[in-house]
Amino acid sequence: MLDSPFRPEPTFQHGKAPTTPTRSTTAILFCNLGTPDDPTPPAVRRYLAEFLSDHRVIEIPKVIWNLILHGIILRTRPKQSAAKYASIWTKEGSPLRLWTAKQALLLQGWLGERGHRVTVRYAMRYGNPSIPAQLDALKAEGVTRVLIVPAYPQYSATSTASVFDAVYGWAQQIRSIPELRFVNRYHDDPGYIAALAHQVREHWKHHGRPDKLVLSFHGVPERTLHLGDPYHCECHKTARLLAEALDLKPSEFQVTFQSRLGRAKWLEPYTEPTLIALGKAGVKRVDVFCPGFTSDCLETLEEIAMEGRAAFLTAGGKEFHHIACVNDQPTWIAALGAIAQNHLAGWPTQQGPDQVALDAMRARAVALGAKE
Ligand SMILES: C=CC1=C(C)c2cc3[nH]c(cc4nc(cc5[nH]c(cc1n2)c(C)c5CCC(=O)O)C(CCC(=O)O)=C4C)c(C)c3C=C
Ligand SMILES: [Fe+2]
Ligand SMILES: [Fe+2]
Question: Is the reported ipTM for this assembly greater than 0.90?
Answer without folding.
Answer: yes
